[in-house]
Inverse folding.
């Protein structure tokens, strides 16, 4: 994987290069929305395919676990393959996976399609995170990375409400077909705009070993796992939470989750600016908000009004998680950003998998409110790590 942070001198020109950056943002939005889609469709899919809600949760945990494996592997194993070629084929696979999901007739068949989604997720995240510096000059690198990973942030908060809304109106199979069309749009945009991008310098195992001995990076990865796992322990089951605890009717779930998404986008922008200047206070506030939201669902979420307010707080807090944690990675590893990014992606998705699997087990055995309490305890542990680590930038090369 290239470690260059200078834009290639070859054509296309500046406007087309920014179009290429937007194509990467759309690609990350497409793949992460595909990952999140089943959260808002969990009950309808489980009912159609005769599966328990807990087993249906594997639609989240399985691709996340595989993405964690493939992200660093792609960085190491992609070798001399042109990055444009890799991205094209990953998007083609993503289109196929969504079509297979839409036409699945059993939970096993749907899970096979989700395996392909996991491969696409790990690959697209890893490649997209490493090529921004070859598309734009150093002075614009921050904006390019914000656009690319803004696709991740937007999908994390909008993927669920979009899926729930489309599922309620048109059926859950149509939601997957819509994602296939969105991935096709990303592919077309990438074909039209993305320059040839051969490899310059490959990442080595030695670089991974060096960063795995970096205590500040390891602390950030631990916080990542705790926050993401705790969030997904509860959020994988947000639809049944809203229905059974807060007593929302089915037709209110989509609009409420869309409001959650809007709150999340607001949180992303608020945290993005604050984290660059005051990372520790920003992450502390985000963690407190996230912990309070999931715990309050058990104690105070018994009405539609309180459940709705808690959901908005939840979206606002979680919307700032990905951008703040990515800022942590870039601050403590300026000389190995690609390595740190792939490890961050891996641990982020491990957190998703741990959260979804653990939440599924707790929900099936002990119920939704007990699971929410355990989720809050998990995110709360991140406060201990954040308080103990002095996050200071290392010298850039």
């Amino acid at each position: 994987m290239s470690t260059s942070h200078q834009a290639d001198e070859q054509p296309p020109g500046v406007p087309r290069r920014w179009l290429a950056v937007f194509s990467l943002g759309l690609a990350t939005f497409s793949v992460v929305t595909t990952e999140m889609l089943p959260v808002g469709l969990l009950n309808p899919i489980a009912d159609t395919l005769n599966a328990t809600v807990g087993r249906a949760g594997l639609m989240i945990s399985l691709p996340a676990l595989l993405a964690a494996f493939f992200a660093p592997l792609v960085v190491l194993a992609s070798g001399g393959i042109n990055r444009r070629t890799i991205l094209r084929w990953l998007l083609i696979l993503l289109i196929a996976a969504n079509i297979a999901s839409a036409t699945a007739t059993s939970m096993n068949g749907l899970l096979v399609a989700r395996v392909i989604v996991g491969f696409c997720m790990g690959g697209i995240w890893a490649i997209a995170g490493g090529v921004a510096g070859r598309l734009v000059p150093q002075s614009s690198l921050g904006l390019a990375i914000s656009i690319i990973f803004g696709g991740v942030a937007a999908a994390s908060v909008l993927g669920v409400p979009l899926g729930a809304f489309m599922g309620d109106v048109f059926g859950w199979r149509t939601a997957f077909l819509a994602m296939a069309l969105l991935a096709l749009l990303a592919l077309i945009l990438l074909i039209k705009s993305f320059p040839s991008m051969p490899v310059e310098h490959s990442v080595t195992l030695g670089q991974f070993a060096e960063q795995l001995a970096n205590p500040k990076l390891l602390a950030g990865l631990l916080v990542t796992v705790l926050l993401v796992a705790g969030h997904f322990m509860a959020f994988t089951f947000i639809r049944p939470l809203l229905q059974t605890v807060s007593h929302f009717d089915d037709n209110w779930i989509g609009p409420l989750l869309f409001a959650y998404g809007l709150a999340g986008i607001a949180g992303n922008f608020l945290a993005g600016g604050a984290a660059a200047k005051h990372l520790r206070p920003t992450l502390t506030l985000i963690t407190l908000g996230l912990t309070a939201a999931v715990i309050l669902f058990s104690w105070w979420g018994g009405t539609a009004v309180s459940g709705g307010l808690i959901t908005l707080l939840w979206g606002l807090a979680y919307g700032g998680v990905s951008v703040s944690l990515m800022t942590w990675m870039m601050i403590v590893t300026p000389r190995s950003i690609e390595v740190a990014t792939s490890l961050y992606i891996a641990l982020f998705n491990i957190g998703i998998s741990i959260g979804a699997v653990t939440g599924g087990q707790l929900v099936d055995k002990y119920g939704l409110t007990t699971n929410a309490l355990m989720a809050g305890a998990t995110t709360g542990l991140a406060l201990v790590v954040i308080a103990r680590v002095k996050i200071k930038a290392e010298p850039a090369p």
